[in-house]
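Backbones bend. Our protein:
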Amino acid sequence: MKGKCNVRILSSIDKMLLTGVLCAFAAASQAQAPNPLDNVPEKMPNDIPYGAPIALDRAEKALDAALAESQKRSWKLVCAIVDSGANLVALKRMDGAQLASITIAVDKARASVQFRRETKALEAGIQAGNNYLLSLNGVVASRGGVPLMDGGKMIGAIGCSGGTGAQDEVVAKAGIAALSQ
C-alpha cells in the first residue's frame, strides 16, 4: 500500500496525561528557590590590599616558629611561605613528612594569597554547598593556608601540610604569631 499514513488520534486520557506532564514541568520551573549567590553585596568581600613581599628573614622566622610548634606536638609537617605575588620564598620539610605535603603546603600558601583569605574559608564554602568553588583554578579547600599581614596589607601567606587540616592550621598560626613578636 503506497502512501499509507498511520495517524493516531489522541484519546481524552492521552490528552489529560500530556496536559498533566506539561503542567508539572511548568510548575517545577517556577518553583525553584532563589539562588543565594544572586545577592549582590554592597562591599567587595576580602578586599585586602597586597603589600610589599615578605622578606626572607621574616619568612624564615615564621617557618622556624611553625616547625617548632609541629615538633613540640610530634607532627611531621612541611611549611612554605609565599610572598604577596604568590612566589615561593622559603620552604622547610621535617624529617619523615610525607612527600606530597611539599606541593600541598606551597599550594595552600598560594591559594591563600590568590584568594585573599584562609584556605579554611574555601573549605567551608564547599562544605556549605558552593560547589562552583571547585571550578576555580588554584582552590585548595583544606585548612592550613593563612595570609601573612603587615599594616593591614597582605605580604604573603604560610601553608602547612602533613597532618589533619586542623593540625596544619594550628602550626600555620604559630608561625604567624612569631611575626608579631
